[in-house]
């Protein structure tokens, strides 16, 4: 499934990044690399961006970028 389809409060493991070039590099620079575990905290009132916790760090990710990240629920 895509991270953008995930539910707040649930934890996931990153399987792979589907983006290419600078988009993929930017996602990976945030720490969202294969094997990383994260938890979705919630979404902004209009649904974009979504807030996630990754290794004690809080990130806001746009749905467009989250749709490029394949995850599995833990």
Structural class: alpha+beta
User: Which sheet architecture does the biggest sheet show?
Assistant: 5 strands, antiparallel
- The order of strands across the largest sheet is 4-3-2-1-5
Mean pLDDT, as a whole number? 94
State the low-pLDDT regions, or none: none
Number of domains: 1
Helix content: 10-25%
Question: What is the CATH class designation?
Answer: Mainly Beta
Shape: globular
Strand content: 35-45%
User: Helix and strand succession?
Assistant: EHEEEHE
Question: How would the blueprint of this fold be written?
Answer:
Blueprint: E1 11-17, H1 21-29, E2 37-43, E3 50-54, E4 57-61, H2 63-66, E5 69-73
Antiparallel strand pairs: 1-2, 1-5, 2-3, 3-4
Question: What's this entry about, in short?
Answer:
The chain is α+β, with helices and mostly antiparallel strands and 74 residues long. The protein contains 2 helices and 5 strands; from the N terminus they run βαβββαβ.
